Amino acid sequence: MPQSSVIDDLGAFIQASPTPFHATRTLADRLLAADYQRLDERDAWQLQPGGRYLITRNDSSLIALSLGEPGALERGLRMIGAHTDSPCLRVKPQPDLLQANLWQLGVEVYGGALLAPWFDRDLSLAGRVTLRDQQGQLHSRLLDFRQPLAIIPSLAIHLNRGVNDSLAINPQLHLPPLLAHASEPQRDVRSLLKDQLQREYPELQVDQVLDFELSFYDTQPPACIGVDGDFFAAARLDNLLSCHAGLRALLDSDGRQACLLVCTDHEEVGSSSCCGADGPFLEDLLQRLLPDAEQRIRCLQRSILVSADNAHALHPNFIDKHDGNHGPQLNGGPVIKINSNQRYATSSETAGLFRHLCQQAGVPVQSFVVRSDMGCGSTIGPITASRTGVRTVDVGVPTLAMHSVRELAGSRDPGYLIRVLREFYNCEELPG
Prior knowledge:
It is an enzyme of class 3 (hydrolase). The chain is an alpha/beta fold. Helix content is 26%, strand content 27%.
């Protein structure tokens, strides 16, 4: 796929995916359009040789499975893992605030968000809502207001003269977005959601909004920027970029090998949930795919997981934040992430395989090691490796402004990642 087509498709994917719920629905819709069959974990499964399936959990995590040709499982699984969630502002259960005659919603910070970039942005609201209809039936539906309906105004410099020296943001006091003037009768979030439900689902006769999981997001669309279009800016690049690359690689693969795409929620808060990488979702699937324990272990020991999550690119204004020999460049290709303390699960064997695949795909490759005097983040790689015993390599596209409301990648790197992940899915022989 040409570079411009990759970027356009990635931009459309991100625009359709303002929350993990929407990302999972977008992934599922594209897989269903490619003739994948949806499985329900509550049903008995009849998996067929060569079958292609998808499973979702909590509406926010997804596993896609392509069984490949006869005998493919005996060669092991080619697995790619990513996550659907991103740092954001989540609406509290009882969020309505009335201050200075203005209607606001209280929020909670989800994940390790950079907070300053959220100010003075055109924000919208999306997520999942549980409701009761007029017949007493319960439903859950996804909502996306799409248009800007909120903003978090900065405090004028005249009232905070030292703001450019240091900015202390109190999430409780300073982050509630502003929605409207107070009105009579007083508005509340449930009436707002009820009206939106009726617009998006006119067939529903909504009696009561019972509960919700809602996130604010920046409405500014993705853009290819720079004098020569070298950069790609968007919200939620961490880690929808990797979800998209894994999806494109799976759909473009030759279908001969046994392949998994695992996109799970809650990575930004530790992955410990029923649908997170530290939960049983993947293991439950593997046990149903390979009920015999010995056969399952043999298969996993022949398998490899590529844990795809964005890497830190070298920032030109903060060169000293990187180890001198390990500063990945934008548009320099995917990055192999290495940490001796197992914050990343890469080994020399799995790194060697990934370098080999990059050479086979004609893709440049880089490496990242955090400075020895700084702490290191982590990914789903070590979690999945420790739970399943599968050999793992941690990789990712280099980005700037990670965990900001708007992040930056090189415009060529998403295509590079897709090419090497497709090569991985098509790889006939794995080491060991």
